[in-house]
Amino acid sequence: MKAIITLEDTLPAKVEIEKLGTKRTIHMNIQDLADHIVSSVKVFDIEDQPAKPEVVLTSPSLPLNTVKYAKFSDGSDLLFIAHTESKVDVTYHKTVFHDVPFPNLVFCIAIRNNRLSKISVMAYKERFLRDDSQMYRFPFSNVFGDGGLCYYDNNVIHDLVQLQSFPYNWTQQPFNDHLFQQGTNNLFDQPLREIFKNSQSQSFNYDMLRSMNMTFSEWTSKILN
User: What is the pTM of this model?
Assistant: First the structure.
């Protein structure tokens, strides 16, 4: 449809309408014409607006640096939380080593019945963790070969945001030689005490990391499935 509007002083507006090859002319005062145009625009806008998408999933409030989250049918939760490289005052047996560098870490934390049910950790090299990032074994002690932590905590988890402090708190725990085998946990054939001593106040040497031969996506899929 095409409409041509002609306005002249002291005369009603002239509206020439052409639709499907038929032409007709109508006259109306300016106020009626304005009301008609406003009404037409409103109807057009409403009809042409796309339907508002429906929300299909909303996650609960999550800790900072949560990179993946899953909710299971039994009510349990699973979070993957990144913890970028840091320097830690490590208590190893009765010795304290200062500013020991830790690599980028990503923790997998499972919650069931408001308590920690399983925790794992892997290392990664890139600045940003992506699905295709390679996973590496935690290079020190107290972690099994598959990444599982030798750690027990029976505290009640009131909400998931509470887990935000877990990666930091765990790195502050005392270390010993449990689950550490020289030349196996990392690519440096050195005792753990020597690694802690020589790395103080240094940048983390990512050449020491032993590959797990899987990506972050493959690791998460293995856990989720």
Answer: 0.77
